[in-house]
Design brief:
Radius of gyration: 22 Å
Main location: membrane
Oligomer: single chain
Organism: Hymenobacter ruricola
Subcellular location: Cell membrane
Distance between the termini: 20 Å
Shape: flat
Number of helices: 11
InterPro entries: MetI-like, MetI-like_sf
Membrane topology: Multi-pass membrane protein
Order of helices and strands: HHHHHHHHHHH
Structural class: mainly alpha
CATH class: Mainly Alpha
Helix content: over 70%
């Protein structure tokens, strides 16, 4: 137990898992027996969750949002990788710089321009999500590329590699695990935006629209139930990305404290 309160300690997996389970149980017991007036009780949330699943299609709406989010993430990742890798050429560096600064733009103003450029509500949703995710991904990916040291590039050159081959081996292949980590960290951006976008374009439904309806009619138990579903979905996605990184890039954990 002392390892749980010692700086930089590494408790065993059993101790750490027991601590997490214990903290979770304490929070559930506090919610169950000492509910705050601001939040619905645990029983109300579970009843609302069951009602959302059986009568309002929560699972179907979650799946609709999930597929849209994955489409946007796939396109945004490809675009962000292309823009970031092009920073190897000085001509394209201003584009990456401008793209990273566009993350300060608000989506509310962008939806109007997106609607003028594309024809359907689904394309508008995808366009907004892709734009929002791309600018954040570019910021993170260019930061990863900038961590490349001169020693790494010089080592590749001493092996007889040209500039393009050195860039490919050291930056493209050598930083793929870090790029996957950037994607994992920024996937949450899409889930933050998708509720707004689905509220504006309601033709295809989605969990954002369902959340909007619950909030509009002050069904706080339903709002909290949907938020918990989104939180659980995000935690599961995080775990999948971490698992993928361990499977495809097992070397990425070497030397970590």
């Amino acid at each position: 137990m002392k390892s749980l309160f010692a700086p930089n300690a590494q408790p065993t997996r059993l101790v750490f898992t027991s601590m997490v389970i214990g903290q979770g149980l304490i929070l559930l017991l506090l919610w169950l027996f000492y509910p705050m007036q601001l939040f619905p009780s645990l029983g109300e949330v579970f009843r609302s969750l069951g009602n959302l699943i059986t009568t309002q299609g929560l699972i179907q709406e979650l799946w609709a949002s999930m597929t849209t989010a994955l489409q946007a993430l796939a396109v945004a990742t490809v675009l962000a990788l292309l823009i970031s890798y092009l920073t190897a050429l000085p001509f394209f560096r201003p584009i990456a710089y401008a793209a990273s600064k566009m993350r300060y733009l608000t989506l509310t103003g962008l939806t109007f321009f997106m609607a003028l450029l594309v024809s359907s509500g689904h394309q508008v949703k995808l366009s907004v999500l892709i734009f929002g995710a791309t600018v954040y991904l570019v910021t993170g990916m260019t930061s990863v590329i900038l961590t490349t040291t001169q020693e790494e590039m010089d080592h590749a050159r001493t092996l007889g590699m040209g500039e393009w081959r050195s860039f490919y081996e050291v930056v493209v292949l050598g930083k793929l695990d870090d790029m996957l980590e950037v994607v994992r960290q920024n996937f949450a951006i899409i889930w933050t935006m998708i509720t707004l976008v689905e509220t504006l374009y309601q033709s295809e439904g989605g969990i954002g629209l369902l959340l909007y309806k619950q909030n509009r009619y002050l069904h706080l138990d339903g709002v909290l139930a949907i938020q918990l579903v989104i939180l659980a979905t995000g935690a599961l996605q995080d775990y999948v990305f971490v698992l993928l990184r361990k499977v495809f890039f097992p070397y990425s954990t070497l030397g970590h404290a």
